[in-house]
Amino acid sequence: MARVYNFSAGPAVLPLEALQEAQNDLVDYKGSGMSVMEMSHRGKEYDALHNEAIANLHELLGLGDDYQVLFLQGGASLQFAQIPMNFLGAGQTADYVNSGHWAAAAIKQAQLIGNVNIVADTQKDIPTRMPALADIRWTPGAVYSHITTNETISGAQFKTLPEAPTPMIADMSSDILSCPRDYSKFAMFYAGAQKNLGPAGVALVVIRKDFAAKGNISIPTMLRYQTHIDKNSLYNTPPCFSIYMITLTTRWLKKVGIENLYRLNVEKAKKIYDVLDASGFYRGTADKAYRSDMNITFRTPTEELDALFVKQAAEAGMKQLKGHRSVGGIRASIYNAFPAAGVDTLVEFMKDFEKRNG
Ligand SMILES: *Cc1c(COP(=O)(O)O)cnc(C)c1O
Predict the structure, then answer these.
(1) Model pLDDT, residue 197
(2) Which of 84, 237, 244, 283 is an S-S bond match for 110, by CB 3.0 to 4.6 Å?
(3) Taking CB atoms and a 6 Å cutoff, what residues make up the pocket around ligand 1?
(4) Cβ neighbours of residue 20 under 8 Å, at least 6 residues apart?
(5) Which residue's CA is the closest to the ligand 1 atom numbered 8?
(6) Alpha-carbon distance values, 52 to 15, 59, 74 (Å)
(7) Is pTM beyond 0.90 here?
(8) What pLDDT is attached to residue 335?
(9) Rg of the chain's alpha carbons, rounded to an integer?
């Protein structure tokens, strides 16, 4: 078996033991004679996996029964539209923090539905950063306030989360469960699974039930959060295999523990940032106060060297280090399941590359 060090921003590296367990059970899940891909989503085997994923997430997130864990399709991107469709009515205002590419994508969808107030804007700032909490001007009476906890493309992350006086909604696609967090401060949060939780094809949506109950009832049934709450994410056929993989990754997350994971994540990120800081060759993209522990963005002195870096790293077994196509540069995504040994290998490569080209 030859596994590379996979720095992909998403779909991203999964815990090896989760992949191996899935492999082991791929054609005959626990003596059922079927793959999880082939069985009814109403059967007892799938039902147990589905409810275990939900229970594991409740436990990992530290949330009680006043919150519902949902598995929906359409990715985080459909949430950008579904949130305002449910909660932003005529004559109402929703607050949005525009912190980068993904926040802007959420704003664009909300503006199709209703009135949006952009309460802080750092989308175009270089170095990339999040707004200072004191600079955010919340709207009194907004129906909700939306933030993006980690901007996956720019590599900027809130180190202290904003707290609006109105119900908070957060896109946590790229840093959910990567650090201890008080999730009960949010009326709702969501994450495409393919970064920190599992494979593509499912989005985790966690919503406080009393907040969901206020949702618009005159939108199509599939788009109402209440529908999926009432049916425990089984209103229609869910992405069973993706959810099964979440069951396996959440088992792994429980075993490692969020506190441990956070310590490891910070250690991993610091090793790379230390190289950037000690070097006159590399330049980090993000303002130091907002550097992401998940997506580390940087550049060499030229685009040619960036390309050479990505190419030679790939030849040395470190794949998918190219920055997002919209910004270029280099991006090392080191989510929960990314092994520490891969960071050590990258750090050695970075030092060597600088010696050869600096
Ligand atoms: C990847 C990403 C998205 C888009 O997720 P999809 O599941 O592809 O729709 C949205 N927000 C953030 C922060 C992301 O990292």
Answers:
(1) 97
(2) 84
(3) 10, 75-77, 102, 148, 152, 171, 173-174, 192, 195, 203
(4) none
(5) 75
(6) 18, 10, 22
(7) yes
(8) 98
(9) 21
Question: What atom of ligand 1 comes closest to residue 200's alpha carbon?
Answer: 7
Can you give the pLDDT at residue 326?
A: 86
Q: Regarding the domain delimited by 257-357, which CATH topology (the fold level of the hierarchy) does it fall under?
A: Aspartate Aminotransferase, domain 1 (3.90.1150)
Rounded CA separation 22/248 (Å): 8
Residue pointed to by tokens 């004679």: 33
Q: Which atom of ligand 1 is nearest to the CA of 148?
A: 13
Name the pLDDT band for 32 (thresholds 50, 70, 90).
very high
Look at residues 283, 341, 253 and name the one whose alpha carbon lies nearest to residue 155: 283
The CATH number, out of the four listed (3.40.50.150, 1.10.1060.10, 3.40.50.1100, 3.40.640.10), of the domain defined by the range 16-256: 3.40.640.10
Distance CA 353, CA 316 (A): 12
Whether 1 shows a pLDDT value over 80: the answer reads no
Pocket test for ligand 1, best of 72, 107, 146, 173 (most atoms within 8 A of CB): 173
Please give the positions annotated as active site.
102, 171, 195
32 burial type by CB count under 10 A (0-12 exposed, 13-18 middle, 19+ buried): middle
Supply φ then ψ for residue 322, to 5 degrees: -70, 135
